[in-house]
Predict the structure.
Amino acid sequence: MGHLPVSVRTKSTAWDWSRGCTTRGVYHPTLVLLLLLSGTATAQTAPMTLSRALELAAANNPQLRVAAAIGEGARAAVTTARARPNPDFNYVTGRQHLLQPSAAAGGQQHFGVAQLIELPSVRQARLNVAEIGRESTDYLLAETQLALRGAVKQAFYQALRRRQEIAMAEESRRIVEDLERRIRIQVQVGEAARLELIRAETEVNAANAQLRGAQLRLTTAVAQLRALLGLPATEDITLDGTLSPALDLPAFADLRNAALATHPALARLRTEVRRARAILNNEETLRKPQPTLLSEYERQPDNHYWRVGVSIPLPLANRRQGPIAEAAAGISQATASTSAFELEITSQLERAYGEYQVASQQLRAYEDGSLREAEAALAAAETAYRLGERGILEVLDAQRVLRSIRFDYLNAQFDRQSARIELEQLRGSDFQE
């Protein structure tokens, strides 16, 4: 809404913006409400650019909060690993009864303290597992951020594609409707056959169906984008964006090396290999017997006792063979997962690299001649039809060819944009313009 030119006069009083509605200082509730609604409408209809969409996703998407909460748990695990064992205190009381003449009757009390002496190697091994786990969650957060960024970009440009499809469908409908009106007039004055009007009406129906399909696809694309941004379903989205310019891709080997070196998912998997080795070392370290110091005091009616001792578990029956074997299998699993992802990321990179090149070649082919040739063919068919040299079928065929080429050109543009987004996601960073 624009600002309304308001001038309110009552007798000799004029509008005073610094005080309110009149010089009496009274605010008019209706006008104040109009101004508030005007500001709200302006804020709600702010265009949705790609940078704003990325900011909203970073602030609202719950997947980032999930990854951040996992990181908080890993940091708490480090605190847990640093903790030292607490001492045990026990107290027992009772009463001694007289059974022999030489014995004394009375109360008994027993006090005991036990303290596990944790070996430094055991504590350090446990702490290494927790610290590497925290490092892994840092990569998990970076991986989630990268995946969300790519998903938002794909959804944003997908919505732009659907919006452009609607514009093209509306233009196609306008052309066939205009042609249908002209044919209807010609049929009414007897210059054209009824069959040509039926054909034109069929094309109008097909154009309307194509437009409705494009509108449905736009609704779906906007809903997907809204979900990624964490926006309510009632909030409208007005897209404002353009396609990225053509890019001179670096060599495939350079892209592959960058992806294998910097992709956070691959870094997380390599960290998981280190963590699996740390777990194995921790399990092997736990085989070492850890002593427990004991101290006791016992008071009887006729005696007092002080005792100090040590308790050491003997690893005879259980030498932790099972946990050690599980940890060794975890190393093999983590290593295999890392190798598999390296192959997967290389394959995806090769596919996206090829898709970008093919889409670029298609765009050059359309721009170098296909579009202009289809437009010229339609213009020639329409001219020949007006002169009576061609029938309506030639015009409709030329329109279909032009419409198909325009849609193919649009798809090639957005296919190249999609391939670029995927390449950026695989290499772990955006290309510089």
In short: The longest strand covers residues 106-116. The beta strands are 88-96, 106-116, 292-299, 304-311. The longest helix spans residues 120-188.
